[in-house]
């Protein structure tokens, strides 16, 4: 069957109770010729194939003429596969954006507006004006009038600042419509017609005389969605402004009672504004001379002449207006619905973004404001992820000001952005966001190479600014050398009071910093709802430190269900390890690369097994990277013996030097215990990644076959010899 025929038969097959999944899986193997990541988690191969097929055709990776099943004259590759695309990656020169906004792909873009949820950008390069214009139209359709809820950007070593901030601003729901030739957006025009028609109908019902109607007709030219002819006076003024060397300065009347509109000298547009509302968006310009606004326009999408283009200088000014917001433009109140955010900006308050502290210094004083006064905003995304994209101080100030009113944002991930001291600028914007009554931010993940301050200190700063967070992850590789002699207890954050928080999950990866329970204690006391705690790469400054931590956890976090230690040397803390395994509340414990058996005796392993056997609350035990070896793995099978009251469901023994013969012996012993218990066992998952199972393929296959009859086994085809060679090469 061709893809077209298979798609048409899908409904009939479902009604007949037949599955087409094997056919789609075979198509994947034949056409894609790769193993997809996490293939064991793929539930629908039809969707997986068509989504990948769409991306490959869009980027010119796949030639549909290469396989007869793809080459059907009834089948339009992009059109027919687009309804199945929930995530899409655009890369390099954004050729995909240009293709999708082309006139012949109008229906494809409409399909994506309904199906696409995740939009990713990867390895972007600088682009010219026409490509940016296509990108703006794409983002406007997919985010502002579509269903995209997540924007992620990856691997952009030297980002184009204008392009980067353009993506960030539109993801946040901002859009100065004139820059994007908004006359092409029929949805904006349709939304604007409704209030204008209602107003016209209301006036008609009042029974105005003809003279009054004529007067109203002139006044109507300033209403949202007015006919094209109404733009003629404004367009003529814009033409003069475009040709004039003079440029606007921020409007000084922005704080007055009367709302004002601002017209850019090069973009030729009034700011975006909602139906029946006026906007107040002063625009940064390069000279001191100020031109009064020509005509006040209450229009969301200004329709300019079709021959006009977005001026890159105007776009540049718009981008950096966001970064240089005046301290007087602060969010005061925000009301949010599904598709819009309404903000009232008032005078100075403590929750202002970018107040000029170290790491976030303003240059040359306030140069402009990007604020809204009773203004309407477009729909914005709920998840923003930035991976390996260096952020300059200017870009951080821009992002901070966007974050300060981004009330729809629920998840923020900043990974390897070289923030350093600029983390304070980001926190300033997040602090302002938390003051918004409809703030939805619940997940924050920050990771980088260098830490600007001790990890626990940063955690305290974040929680004091964002007590409503549910998940917080802080991760750093190295301690900043400039901060190497800095005392752990910096008064700026270590003495700040942490309000009672909603934190449920806390992850900290220390850059080989000592873990001081004294500094972590205020965080634990403020986090009564904490359910998951992960501590990575910490050092224990004294033998008693782990014991103090366990006491603090028992006292302050009664709801803790999951506890994880990674790369923390626990070789000399056997007593504390056993205490954790006895805990009647913990359901999941992870000791990952913790050198548990480095200096232990056989008695320690027996104590672990007996402790787990008596603990009926523990559901998951993860022991990767602890050099279990064959004999310790075989011993662990006794956890499931007939006299055990354990409820253990998951066991992770990845990276533990396990060989095929040891795995087979473990399997046989486990089978014996299951038989003694009459088949009643709760053990369901075994993880075996990166073990030495390739040393005897036949024995390994037999062990895996027998294990899979007992539980779900997750392993990989790991080349242990190559891994050993790699290890030797870096010694």
Automatic annotation (TrEMBL):
The keyword Repeat applies. It comes from the Eukaryota. InterPro entries: Leu_rpt_41, LRR_dom_sf. Keywords: Leucine-rich repeat, Phosphoprotein, Repeat, Ubl conjugation pathway. Residues 196-231, 246-309, 327-357 are annotated as: Disordered. Residues 196-219 have a biased composition (Basic and acidic residues). PANTHER family: LEUCINE-RICH REPEAT-CONTAINING PROTEIN 41, MUF1. This is Leucine-rich repeat-containing protein 41. It comes from Oxyruncus cristatus. The gene is Lrrc41.
């Amino acid at each position: 069957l061709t893809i077209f025929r298979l798609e048409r038969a899908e409904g009939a097959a479902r009604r007949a109770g037949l599955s087409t999944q094997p056919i789609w899986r075979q198509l994947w193997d034949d056409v894609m010729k790769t193993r997809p990541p996490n293939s064991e988690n793929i539930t629908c191969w039809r969707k997986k194939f068509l989504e990948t097929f769409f991306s490959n055709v869009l980027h010119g990776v796949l030639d549909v003429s290469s396989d007869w099943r793809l080459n059907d004259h009834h089948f339009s590759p992009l059109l027919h596969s687009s309804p199945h695309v929930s995530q899409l990656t655009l890369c390099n020169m954004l050729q995909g954006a240009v293709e999708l906004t082309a006139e012949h792909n109008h229906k494809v873009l409409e399909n994506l507006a309904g199906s696409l949820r995740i939009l990713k950008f990867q390895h972007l390069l600088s682009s010219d004006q026409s490509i940016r214009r296509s990108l703006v139209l794409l983002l406007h359709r997919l985010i502002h009038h579509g269903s995209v809820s997540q924007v992620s950007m990856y691997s952009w070593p030297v980002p184009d600042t204008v392009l980067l901030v353009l993506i960030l601003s539109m993801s946040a729901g901002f859009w100065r419509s004139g820059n994007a030739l908004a006359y092409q957006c029929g949805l904006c025009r349709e939304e604007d017609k409704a209030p204008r028609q209602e107003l016209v109908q209301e006036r008609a019902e009042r029974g105005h005389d003809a003279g009054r109607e004529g007067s109203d007709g002139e006044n109507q030219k300033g209403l949202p969605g007015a006919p094209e002819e109404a733009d003629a006076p404004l367009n003529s003024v814009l033409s003069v402004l475009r040709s004039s060397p003079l440029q606007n300065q921020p409007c000084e009347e922005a704080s007055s009672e009367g709302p004002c509109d601002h017209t850019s000298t090069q973009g030729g547009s009034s700011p975006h504004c909602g139906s029946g509302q006026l906007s107040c968006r002063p625009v940064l310009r390069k000279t001191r001379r100020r031109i009064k606004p020509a005509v006040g326009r209450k229009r969301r999408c200004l329709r300019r002449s079709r021959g006009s283009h977005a001026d890159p200088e105007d776009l540049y000014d718009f981008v950096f207006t966001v970064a240089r917001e005046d301290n007087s433009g602060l969010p005061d109140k925000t009301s949010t619905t599904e598709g819009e955010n309404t903000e009232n900006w008032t005078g100075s308050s403590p929750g202002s973004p970018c107040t000029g502290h170290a790491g976030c210094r303003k240059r040359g004083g306030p140069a402009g404001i990007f604020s809204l006064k009773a203004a309407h905003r477009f729909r914005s995304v709920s998840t923003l992820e930035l991976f390996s994209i260096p952020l300059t101080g200017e870009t951080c100030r821009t992002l901070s000001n966007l974050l300060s009113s981004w009330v729809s944002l629920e998840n923020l991930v900043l990974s390897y952005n070289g923030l350093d001291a600029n983390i304070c600028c980001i926190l300033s914007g997040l602090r302002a966001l938390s003051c918004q009554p409809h703030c939805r931010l619940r997940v924050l993940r920050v990771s980088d190479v260098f830490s600007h301050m001790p990890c626990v200190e940063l955690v305290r700063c974040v929680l004091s600014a964002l007590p409503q967070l549910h998940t917080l992850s802080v991760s750093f590789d190295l301690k900043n050398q400039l901060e190497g002699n800095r005392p752990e207890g910096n008064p700026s954050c270590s003495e700040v009071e942490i309000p009672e928080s909603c934190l449920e999950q806390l992850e900290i990866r220390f850059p080989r910093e000592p873990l001081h329970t004294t500094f972590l204690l205020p965080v634990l006391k403020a986090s009564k709802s904490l359910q998951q705690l992960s501590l990575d790469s910490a050092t224990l400054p004294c033998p008693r430190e782990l014991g103090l931590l366990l006491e603090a956890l028992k006292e302050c976090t009664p709801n803790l269900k999951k506890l994880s230690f990674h790369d923390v040397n626990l070789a000399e803390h056997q007593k504390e390890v056993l205490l954790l395994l006895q805990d009647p509340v913990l359901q999941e414990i992870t000791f990952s690369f913790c050198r548990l058996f480095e200096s232990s005796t056989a008695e320690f392993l027996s104590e672990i097994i007996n402790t787990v056997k008596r603990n009926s609350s523990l559901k998951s035990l993860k022991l990767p990277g602890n050099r279990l070896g064959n004999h310790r793995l075989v011993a662990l099978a006794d956890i499931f013996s007939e006299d055990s009251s354990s409820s253990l469901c998951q066991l992770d023994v990845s990276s533990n030097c396990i060989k095929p013969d040891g795995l087979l012996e473990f399997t046989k012993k486990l089978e014996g215990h299951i038989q003694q218990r009459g088949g009643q066992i709760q053990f369901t998952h075994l993880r075996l990644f990166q073990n030495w199972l390739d040393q005897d393929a036949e024995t390994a296959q037999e062990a895996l076959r027998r294990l899979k009859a007992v539980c779900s086994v997750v392993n990989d085809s790991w080349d242990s010899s190559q891994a050993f060679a790699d290890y030797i090469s870096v010694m």
